[in-house]
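Comment thread on ticket #2218

A.B. wrote:
> Attaching the input chain for the structure job we discussed in standup.
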Amino acid sequence: MPELPEIVALERFLVEHAVGAVVGRVDVAALSVLKTFDPPVTALSGRDVTGAGHWGKHLGLACDGLWLITHLSRAGWLRWIDEPGRTPPKPGKGPLALRVHLFTSEGATPAFDLTEAGTKKRLAVWVVEDPQTVPGIARLGPDALEVTSAQFAELLHGTAQRLKTVLADQVVIAGIGNAYSDEILHAAKLSPFATANRLTPEEVERLYAAMREILTDAIDRSVGQEAAKLKGEKRSGLRVHARTGLPCPVCGDTVREVAYADKSFQYCPTCQTGGKILADRRMSRLLK
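C.D. wrote:
> Ran it. Output below, let me know if you need it in another format.
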């Protein structure tokens, strides 16, 4: 799933490549992605692209008074096409959900696709005048890179949830998902199952610093990359997430995994849990 660093990189990619263009035809290949119907998606046609923005994991394109907002969900992505075909795509065929054709001042006619792999279709698109009318945006907590250290400490003090849950809860802090929460906790040397309101002031400070360092570094590595290369750039920077069974790059211990529902997370026992192995089940506790 694209998280804050990839969304910021995609936002800046759209600023560089789409701002100044005019929206042409909008092809909807999967009607299920449209979560709003007034204004219709056709209202975007003929409008100037004036900017781009992000709210947590939501990405937006400003089109002269309207916003095209998307949440790429777990398996969605944005793909840029310099020379798209003229024939509208057939609905329900392949991963394509929506295609936006553009006309540039240089006479080029690029497009960008919103695509989603897999069978669980969760990618969502809204056309709105105000991004805050999108329910998911309205519920967001402060941006992970805009929250102050004092606000962060207050957020943690107010919940008895586990750190892994808190960091990925968009209502608490916006922009962090499964992958970067693993990386942040590893950098902070804290257990995913540590209770948020029981952290010491030093641990809170360490977690806040790790959050900013991990996300800022990922953004620095991602911005400027072509949209198609962002997934690979994300994977290349991960130390524990999706590395089950491999050695921890910090201490050499084996990276472990806890699986629950349809997700899993990874951690290093030596770096994060004092060498103890977390039971591989939901609601697990440290094995003694």
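A.B. wrote:
> Thanks. Noting for the ticket: The chain has eight helices and ten strands.
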